[in-house]
Specification:
The protein contains 13 helices and 10 strands. By secondary structure, it is an alpha/beta fold. It has 2 domains: 100 residues, Four Helix Bundle (Hemerythrin (Met), subunit A) (Up-down Bundle), CATH 1.20.120; 193 residues, Translation initiation factor eif-2b, domain 2 (Rossmann fold). The structure holds ribulose-1,5-diphosphate.
């Protein structure tokens, strides 16, 4: 990862130079770690630097809970410490552990999810998810012959990143516009998508269009799997907080086209898929039903983590 200060990282997340829920979390945590390791101030200065970085990074994109979980994890357990050296050591150790766990989760999810891909399967994926692609690449690495259908994912067209990445890995891939999903679903054996957030009641928040794909897969009886590390589960949802769905600029949709200013253009970039439409969630602790989300939050993220960090 490039050496950037926290303001640069926040800007890169806002502008989507760094994107995808897992990657933004790891970049946000790395930025917090750098603030700690580079600080030369006393305890009060260090704590205020960390707080400023935390606030700025969390404001960069609102929807992916992995960013919030990552930043909280990085700063977990520093309350009550009375030397800057102890705080620095703790934040750096926490951050490294978070990043390592998150990177390892991609491999574990790949290994577990690949078992659900059979030789000859056609897999449909949406947007660009590191976790979902890890599953596809692992199945390919194991020698399974699979084909992928990738959606364009308007307006940012992250599907282009996906098709390039898969082609580079040697996986045959076909790209479709988002509205072609129902037309091709008959030839699909499995849908694999990523997650920005999973709530305590098992609702998936992911790239806009995910919920339509889930409905179409359900109609065609095609299994719909979500690939998600456990840091995508939301402790805040336990307290009743709603997930904020980011809405971005109208320009991302209309580009240079002439559209009168009087026309309202809406650009919500994520949507909500109810648990009834999700067959399983492939996580770093195994394949679980969406209804186990509460247990992941309480048992894996843990009571201390949840209650200490409640704001
Ligand atoms: C990306 C997106 C991805 C999830 C999961 O949206 O919705 O499906 O973030 O990705 P955007 P990952 O491009 O707007 O960030 O599995 O890489 O965490």
């Amino acid at each position: 990862m490039l050496n950037m200060n926290f303001e640069d990282v926040a800007k890169a997340i806002e502008s989507m130079d760094i994107r995808g829920a897992g990657r933004i979390a790891r970049a946000g945590v790395k930025a917090i770690c750098d603030v700690a390791s580079e600080s030369t101030g006393d305890l009060e200065t260090l704590l205020s630097e960390l707080e400023a970085a935390k606030v700025r990074i969390l404001a960069s994109r609102p929807t992916a809970i992995s960013l919030w979980n990552g930043v909280q994890a990085a700063m977990h357990g520093i309350d009550g410490m009375n030397s800057p050296e102890d705080v620095k050591a703790k934040v750096m150790a926490n951050s490294e552990a978070f990043i390592l766990r998150s990177e390892k989760a991609m491999e574990t999810i790949g290994r577990i999810g690949a078992k659900r891909i059979r030789d000859g399967d056609t897999v449909l994926t949406h947007c660009n998810s590191h976790a979902a692609l890890s599953v596809i690449k692992e199945a390919h690495r194991q020698g399974k012959k699979l084909k992928v259908i990738a959606t364009e994912s308007r307006p940012w067209r992250q599907g282009i990143i996906t098709v390039n990445e898969l082609t580079e890995a040697g996986v045959p891939v076909t790209m479709i516009v988002d509205s072609a999903v129902r037309s091709v679903m008959r030839s699909v054996d499995l849908v694999l998508v990523g997650a920005d957030t999973i709530t305590s009641s098992g609702v998936l928040i992911n790239k806009i269009g995910t919920s339509q794909i889930a409905l179409i897969a359900n109609e065609a009886r095609v299994p719909f799997l979500v690939c998600s590390e456990t840091y995508k589960f939301s402790p805040l949802s336990l307290f009743g907080d709603l997930v904020e769905i980011e809405e971005r600029d109208r320009k991302e949709i209309i580009g240079d086209a002439k559209v009168p200013d009087s026309v309202k253009v809406r650009n919500p970039v994520f949507d909500a898929t109810p648990p009834e439409y999700i067959d399983s969630i492939v996580t770093d602790i195994g394949m679980i039903p969406p209804f186990a989300a509460y247990e992941v939050i309480v048992k894996i993220l843990g009571h201390d983590f949840i209650f200490e960090n409640r704001e």
